[in-house]
Amino acid sequence: MQFYQSNYSYQQAQPSIPVNSMGSMDMGFNNDVSGTMGGGELTPGLLAAFGTSGYPGEPPLLEELGINFSHIKSKTLVVLNPLMKDIPSDIMADSDLAGPILFVLLFGTLLLLAGKVQFGYIYGVGLFGTVSLHYLFKFMSNDTQIDLSRSASVIGYCLLPLVLISVVGVVANLDNLVGYVLSAVAVLWCTYSASGFFVSVLKLHNVRPLIAYPLCISSKPFYVTTPIFYVNAAPHIGHLYSMMIADTRIRWEKLDPAKRTYFLTGTDEHGLKIQNTAEKLGVEPKELVDKVSNNFKLLASKFNIKYDRFIRTTDTDHVELAQNFWNMMMEKGYIYKGTHSGWYCVSDETFYPESSIEEIEKNGKKVKVSIESRNEVVYETETNYFFKLSSFQQHLIDYLKQNPQFIKPNHRYKFILNELMSAKLPDLSVSRPSLRLKWGIDVPNDQSQKIYVWFDALLNYLTATGFPRGFAKDGSRYVTLENSPWPATHIIGKDIIRFHCIYWPIFLMAANIEPPKQVVVHSHWLCEGFKMSKSLGNVVEPIELSEYYGVDPVRFFLTENSNIDDDCKFSEALLQRSRDALVGKYCNLLSRIGGKSFDIAQSVRQAKNGEFKNIEDLISRACLKKGNVGTILKLSTELKESLDNVYREMDEKFTNFDYIRAIQLWWGVINQANQMFQVAEPWLYVTAIKDSQINEETATQYQLLVNYFVYLCAEAMRISSILIQPVMPVLSNQVLTRLDVALEKRSSDFTKVGADLDYGKDSNSSSHKPPLQKVKSR
């Protein structure tokens, strides 16, 4: 039998006995060892067999199993003393997993005893983090060998401070501010201890803070929401537009690998309109909402809307949160019961004050309508519960004055602020009689009332965060923690601005929860000058549209024309024009440089080898059209500058939801590249090279010029395709794949000229087809 060398022992293992050496085989006993336990130098007892001292000439059995109590003790002491400067290098020469396994099992057991039964998630995150950090430090380690088991060993030992905190958690409640502070200290303790180990392993000096950074890095998720869409009718292009604004922004954030995001969309499924629609169709409300909600999921799937959660207000956790939030408001005294009379709109499911009502003539009759929504209202009197909006009016006014970016665009901000300052807010009716509204969430402890649909619906944004998880209770105030995505950036249509910019922040203020980060209010899409409606017959069905024009061209059109300040104009003629531009400018540039006369791979390789170092001088000397030298030099310089700056400039626009100008910047580099290629005319040099009358030196110079022009345009295609991924995720990645750009090099880290010099293989193969082709107008 072969005893393999221990991770801890420096003694060489004895060679095994060959099978064919049976002539004078040593039976395995030394002369000084008797055949019975207790004789010779053998120490009797089970503990000796599994101890750390071992027998003469043999390493201890536990050491052979990878367990060295001396090293476990040494590493534990290092963790407990994170300020130790000189960590013994010999204890890092092994990949001991005994200690980490012990601590991990102990951690899980203590969490179980503390009532935290769902700790498998923590183990999963730990495994993912260990693998990620291992490869990060492996890339940093140059020639130092660091294997996965050693990384796991380091991180496992440094779990000890969290184990100690979990011990406290068994006997004391840590779900409070003190607990969160202690946990934060434990995490920092773990981090700094681990950094010391890795500094020792990687043989680096004076870089402990740098090593510690990726161990503790934690960026708060960027949380974006769409409105939850009402399911009384099929989805239309307006719903898609809200989804697309959010999805594009989330994808833009994800271009930066260091950023984290959380994207919520879903459906609003309670209320009188749902109840009435279900009655007309002869189905149960739940059956109706299940069907229509699925249509919104299908819309999202069709257009590659990648949400993190699709929430439904019929979800169990949301119903529970809505009732708990109601109870919280009741306990605080912000909800009371009373009688209400006013102008009620069934379509909008809200009461309007007299100042928001006007009389118009409709079908030969005079009717009252909401000035804001133009929907009909009727006068009703009923017993409801009311929320004390008026108690928070001045608080909200002060908040808006201190945070002018809370509502975007600015004219919407001014509208809300002026409304708040011009009249006293009436208290809001937040329930409806169960005799009239049967399809809704029950008011706790009062079966005669249902929770008002907007009170219920707005809380979905909080439900999705897992509230109260991710929040620390500091007295009566909820403090948002780093692991919570809250506060959110809400994307909404202008018709629901009052609910999101007055009611919602007041509800949160009443609960002592931080208001949303921002509310972005977009306008509507007009078809032939009118708001889309079924009665006018001008509703645009997005899925049918995409089946003819393609998903990405529709996404691009909506983004290119996304003007949140004013209503946007839709027509198929405009969509056709937008699509034709993609084919004629973006895709055509790829076709031009990807033709058989050029070689993108060779061009990139020459750039990598520094062969374009003196290219400006060569252009001046060897340009076939001397009159174009100045223009070519100017255009190539401007193109390189634009490519180096376009990510930063587009980032500013996308961050401010100024999509229309972001796309204009993107078109700018495409147009510059096309113009440079057209003026440089590289095909003329290809023809000249084929001329047998020019010498080899001239041919080499001409080929270098050709490859330089192709390289610049290839860089324009590569960088522009990376940056347009949030808008056209499929088409852009088809182009990047055609260019042979590696998947890991499609992020914002590679959006400067020369940032990637390893692409282009087979890009000029004749087997490639255009990524997008023209379609006829219909």
From TrEMBL:
Residues 757-778 are annotated as: Disordered. It comes from Candida theae. One of its GO terms (biological process) is methionyl-tRNA aminoacylation. This is Methionine--tRNA ligase, mitochondrial. It is a multi-pass membrane protein. It comes from the Eukaryota. The lineage of its organism: Eukaryota, Fungi, Dikarya, Ascomycota, Saccharomycotina. It holds the Pfam family Yip1. GO terms for cellular component: membrane. Keywords: Aminoacyl-tRNA synthetase, ATP-binding, Ligase, Membrane, Nucleotide-binding, Protein biosynthesis, Transmembrane, Transmembrane helix. The keyword Transmembrane applies. Its main location: membrane. InterPro entries: Met-tRNA_synth, Met-tRNA_synth_2, Methionyl/Leucyl_tRNA_Synth, MetRS_core, Rossmann-like_a/b/a_fold, tRNAsynth_Ia_anticodon-bd, Yip1_dom. It is found in: Membrane. The chain crosses the membrane at residues 97-115, 121-140, 152-172, 178-202. Belongs to the YIP1 family. Belongs to the class-I aminoacyl-tRNA synthetase family. Its EC number is 6.1.1.10. The keyword Cell inner membrane does not apply. Residues 223-593 form the Methionyl/Leucyl tRNA synthetase domain. GO terms for molecular function: ATP binding; methionine-tRNA ligase activity. Residues 89-215 form the Yip1 domain.
